[in-house]
Amino acid sequence: MASLPSTPRRRRWAALLGVSALVATGGGFLAPSAAAQVNAAQAVDFPTHCVPPPISGIPPIDGTTSAEITVDNTTPKVGDTVTVTYTVTKPAAGNPVDLALPADIMTPTGKVTLGGAQPGSVTVAGPRKNPPVPGKAPFPAFSMTGTFTVTAPGSITLSPGDYNIHTSYIMELDTPCTVTNPPAPVSQTIVATEQPGANERSVRLGTASGKPGDTVTVTGAKFTPLADITVAGRAGAAETADTTTVKAGATGTFTAQLTVADKATTGVVAYEGTAWSDDKGAGPAAYTVVDDTPVPANSQKLTTAVAAGTLSMTQAGDSVQLTSVDFGKGGAATGDLHAATVKDFRGGPAGWSLTGKVTDFTGPGGRIDAGRLSWTPACATKAGSPSTCAAGSAGAVGTAGATLASTPNGAVTGGEFTAGAKVSLDVPAFTAPGAYSGVLTLTLT
Question: Which of 57, 68, 406, 411 is the 20 to 30 Å CA partner of 143?
């Protein structure tokens, strides 16, 4: 370890700076580790340039940092939140003076560099926690955590990035340490996949109208390859007598000829098997039967149409303040979710489900596990709605998620609904003081 001139001025500044006055440790740089294997965390070494606070009078320090990146989920889906932990097992610096430094004066922050399918960076932070550091001893290891949302499928690499050591000992000081030749070696690789989403099957008609007994060409896409497909007329939520069957091709597409004779037919659907399934069907595609029945003398025929709408959700706000708890006691931090309004104007047979999942709560003392958040859901149905919503079960939400409210499938579904919940976060008794926050995401399907 490099030594400092023993002068009264240098000793005075070293005593003021505490752990922010850094000195390089170790010898020459180690060769970079081999490329990280998919889904396997790997310790890496990389050259680092640290700049002590100017008040210290200590020149910049070049040393080697040893670190490792780990994640809570190595095979996420697009839309998932991944928790990242950046652990510096050997900082590029040590205590430059003979004076021992006290415990719990060091707060680290930093960045994790993302590459591959999702370039970018993740901000990470650690708690104000460290053991006492003897004089001239290496600085201890520390860990920092953060989260990011997966936005693209494929392999995503994670490398250690720049970090900063903030000290609170007599003075508030920062010592930034940067990667000398960025990016640092890859320490972790995760493989993200597409999030299974809503049913992507689709159906199209060659024409939107015809006389009773006319034939319409029906094409479909993204069905199960080689599946038996039923193509049928639809009058609202009920099927008409207009049906035919066809087999999907090797790519999941099909073409069918449907004779539409029933004057009640207002749309055409297609589904796998012999009975409608919201998960394996598509449509209805609008179709109008042009009734050519002669109008009696001195009469007028009046016609109208009801257009199908969409399934949508809005919420009354995006920030909820839970009650506070006392350090040493902990307990339940409670509150109420902002109401979510669901409007189902599709006019078909499918119900809906509103689910939620929450991230860990992060703060100055680390994190509070997402599994400690529970809720008691409630749901109300607007008068006149064809469907009736049901509240989900009371219990933990967590990262896996839980149901807030839903409606079942039926002959005729739809309406307006309001869902909400009372929430409670079980805070451990000796959680470090400060503000903690997590993100609860609602998904309507």
Answer: 57
